[in-house]
Amino acid sequence: MTTATVIGKGGDVAIFTRNHRHHVEQAVSLSASDPTRQISFRARSKWVSALDALNKKKPRDLYISPVGGNGMVEYVADLHRVHLEPQRGQPVTEELLKLTTDSTADEGLWEQYEGQNVLTLYAVSNVRKLKQPFPMTKLVKVSDNKPIRENYGYSYCLVYRHDFGAD
Length: 167
Prior knowledge:
Largest sheet: 6 strands, mixed
Shape: globular
Distance between the termini: 32 Å
Strand order of the largest sheet: 2-5-4-3-1-6
Helix content: 10-25%
Radius of gyration: 15 Å
Number of helices: 4
Structural class: alpha+beta
Strand content: 25-35%
CATH superfamily: Hypothetical protein
């Protein structure tokens, strides 16, 4: 079954991503005081399939494994918005950039990093640390029905929802 078919049938999919621990921890802290507050992050790849999945059901679970970590999914959040190819001056881009954490507020669209422009802005809420982290290899990719590899290095992928027992 193709990714589009799974999404089209309303499959119970989630999104997996990696992010820097200090950014995620700041989001956890902000969510602790207001779980409904949306917080935005940036990605260098276009989250096309994530946007497709989100258009079918909002919010979607977003599983997060820290960059440079031990391959464990340690956090989960509610994904609310995905904006592709953000450009300065676009109302949605400017709105999402106002939702960043203090640690990422000055990053803009990564204009200062040649060739590494942001291709996706995404907004999450209710960012929380899992009581029992699990190996990211337990997540199965929708695209090929194979588990994520330990050295998975892409920005994101669609995965089947995992019963992680958070909260």
